[in-house]
Amino acid sequence: MSMNCVLYAVQLPRAERLRELEDEEEFFQELENCPKMEIGKEWHGLHYLLTGTAAEFRGAEGFLVDGGEEVGPEIGYGPARLFSPREVDDIHSVLVDISPDELWSRFDADEMTADQVYPSLDWHEEPELKRQVYQRTYAELKKFVDEASRRGQCVVVTMG
Q1: CA–CA distance from 31 to each of 11, 40, 155 (Å)?
Q2: Which residue from 45, 54, 83, 114 could staple onto 87, CB 3.0 to 4.6 Å apart?
């Protein structure tokens, strides 16, 4: 079973509703028409590149793995995590200052392999392909968070 990350941008009233839902099907129905971004399996690599660690990281840079308020039912790898509009602004402030090239300059195949960054693969193989995938996904992530921040939305992070 693979671990895939999906982000949703939601308005505050919908976030309040998500807090009340215990049923997985209802929870995802509530998110059905929300803007979303599928990060897929790149979530842990992005976390590492943003924080310099494979472990949990308190702070806006670590939002893919840590932080936010747990909401809803257990879905795959724990409940979803909800970030308030203020927290989304904090995340945006971190991401806006890091270009895709700067992000990739933090890539260290030896460390990522040693730290068992998910997915378990040899980070030395196909470095150019990995660079393209991670820089593209990161650029999409920045755009997604920027739009949520400008709209005053919450962000929901799911891992399943």
Answers
A1: 11, 17, 11
A2: 83
